[in-house]
Amino acid sequence: MRNHGFKTIIAAATAVVAALSLAACSGSGSGSSSSAASKGAVAVSFPSREVTIWNDTMDVVKQKVTAQGYEFLSDNPNWDIQTQVSDWQSWISRGDVKAIFGFPAQVDSFAAVTAQAKAANIPVLGYSVPWQGTASYLALDLKGAGEQAGKATADWVKKTYPGKKVGVGVIADTTEDLGKLQQQGIIDALNASGADVTVYKLEAQSRQDAYNVAQSALIAHPDIKAWASISGDMALGSRQATIDARLNEQDFSNIATDATKEGFQLIQKGNTMIREAYCFTPDTLGSAMSTMLLQAAEGKKVDKKQVGVTKIDKTNVAKYLK
Q1: For residues 236 and 264, is the Cβ–Cβ distance under 8 A?
Q2: Distances in whole angstroms, Cα of residue 117 to Cα of each of 39, 89, 91, 286, 310
Q3: What is the distance of C-alpha 300 from the center of its chain?
Q4: Which class does domain 24-139+282-307 fall in?
Q5: Where is the signal peptide (predicted)?
Q6: Cβ(92)–Cβ(31) under 8 Å?
Q7: How does DSSP classify residue 20?
Q8: 226-282: per-residue pLDDT in tens?
Q9: Where do the structural domains in the chain lie, given as residue ranges?
Q10: Which residues pair with 274 in a beta bridge?
Q11: CATH topology agreement for domains 24-139+282-307 and 142-279
Q12: Strand, coil or helix: what is 107?
């Protein structure tokens, strides 16, 4: 995924894109911010705005930190490492930034800019993974998220196709640990379930990627009856590929470790292949991140926090559509 959650440990995932409107442009070319505030600024940086869960989470963080009198800064590196590094350097040079919460496009490339922030007395917090120089980080139970999605997929296979061998397309972006851990959790749970399944690993980073690989997989592996992925956008892409192949989506399962608003709407309908999801929710992520950012901005010790996924199905999806 360029996934929940989630490009480096983590993931999450995602996905994903019914992106919420964030803030007006300022600072570096890809930066954005809310109106100025007297306490200074705090910044949040994800590798891209392609992933809905990141956009929605930033919206929660923005609301909470601006309510406490801080200016909110964000950027859109579009997966470009140097652009993201430059954005951070721009924030450091402002002189009023009190803390940065970041998820680097590539962790190994951020030690130097993190050291620059530390030298300027700006604590850097990691999303999903720590690296050299971070003051603390938000840990995501990525493998556990995958295991829950994998178990749910296996349970559906055993119930729907008893005694039959079924293919499962596992869609993930495994260029970083965020996707690798979730994918491994899904596969481990499938293998441990006793379900008679054949696992097909499929690589994707976006909704369109997922559509393309699912389209090809359905031709190459007609035994596929289930999709398991690490982002809501990937789930939507594989669903559309199935529909466009003129297959009955009622014969399929499609479970992800993330969901977008569009995915929630499909869960609510109850008559599509997307019946449930295991999500790192924007409220949970945003609340944890804003608490940590405010602690860091105020010079307090920041303890590591860990969040897990929430099962979302027809019984509780309405609350996530408000």
Answers
A1: no
A2: 18, 8, 9, 22, 34
A3: 28
A4: alpha beta
A5: 1-23
A6: no
A7: P
A8: 999 999 999 999 999 999 999 999 999 999 998 888 999 999 999 999 999 999 988
A9: 24-139+282-307, 142-279
A10: none
A11: yes
A12: helix
Q: What is the DSSP string of 300-313?
A: -----EEE--EEE-
Helices (H), 161-298: 177-192, 207-220, 232-244, 261-269, 282-297
Q: At what angle do helices 142-160 and 177-192 cross, to 10 degrees?
A: 40
Residue 10: which of 2, 21, 18 has the closest Cα? 2
* pLDDT range class, residue 27, cuts 50, 70, 90: very low
Helical H runs in the chain?
A: 52-67, 81-94, 111-119, 142-160, 177-192, 207-220, 232-244, 261-269, 282-297
Q: Give the number of other Cβ atoms within 10 Å of residue 247's Cβ.
A: 16
Amino acid at 260: T
Which among 8, 54, 16, 7 is positioned nearest to 256, based on CA atoms?
A: 16
The residue assigned the tokens 């398991």 is 228
Kindly state the average pLDDT of the residues 283-310. 96
pLDDT of residue 38: 74
Judge whether residue 36 has pLDDT over 60.
no
Q: How many CB atoms lie within 10 A of CB 311?
A: 13
The one-letter amino acid code at 173 reads D
SS3 of the chain: helix, strand, coil, percent, to 5: 45, 20, 40
- Among residues 172, 45, 30, the alpha carbon closest in space to that of 104 is found at 45
Kindly report, residue by residue over 137-148, the tens digit of the pLDDT: 999 999 999 999
**pLDDT, tens digit (0-9, with 9 covering 90-100), for 86-144:** 999 999 999 999 999 999 999 999 999 999 999 999 999 999 989 999 999 999 999 99
> How does pLDDT run across 221-233, given as a tens digit for each residue?
999 999 999 999 9
Q: Which amino acid is at 137?
A: Y
CATH number for the domain whose boundaries are 142-279: 3.40.50.2300
